[in-house]
């Protein structure tokens, strides 16, 4: 790691995850900014992105709505056709162009309503038109693994977000959470552990290289 990177990482602001009031106030300031703002929450698989995003939306309702990146998972049938089903969740298994287009529409806030997709883990499929975002909602929160990737079409995402938080729990906590999530959705413990330490970890290794591009690092659980 270069000295410049060391300095940037050291200077990067951070806050403990337990200090939810501070995070909520930061999100509220975005919502009070006078125009539609987009807040991104990112981190490796199992970092707790969706949990924090849902807590913020609940606390700010009805002034915030959650639009997850996972709504742009390619369909099961398409993943199988492409021969990449075993890598579902990797960076090339998403419709990034569709996600970028949606973020642009949400940022412009010129349409009375924009409908966004969501992802159903019980079905392992994205569901179109599931999330209604009305024009007068001042804050859209989006969460996903690859919001800070600087390569290819993904590089456009960062410029469409007003603030991006990177969640950095302890690695042991993150992996344990990830294994338990896989088990909750029907995998046996051996398969769940293999997934968490295999495909998911390769994705995590990529995501962790993007941390330096975040506006805020959220430490802890």
Describe this structure in words.
There is one protein chain. The chain is an alpha/beta fold and 221 residues long. The chain has one domain: Rossmann fold (3-Layer(aba) Sandwich), CATH 3.40.50.300. Helices cover 41% and strands 20% of the residues. The chain contains nine helices and eight strands. It has helices at 3-11, 20-31, 49-60, 76-82, 96-108, 155-159, 171-184, 189-197, 199-208, and strands spanning 14-16, 37-42, 64-66, 113-120, 125-134, 139-143, 163-168, 216-219. The strands form two sheets. The chain has a six-stranded parallel beta sheet with strand order 1-8-7-2-6-3. Strands 4-5 form a two-stranded antiparallel ribbon. Helix 7 crosses helix 8 and helix 8 packs parallel to helix 9 (199-208). The chain starts with a helix and ends with a strand.
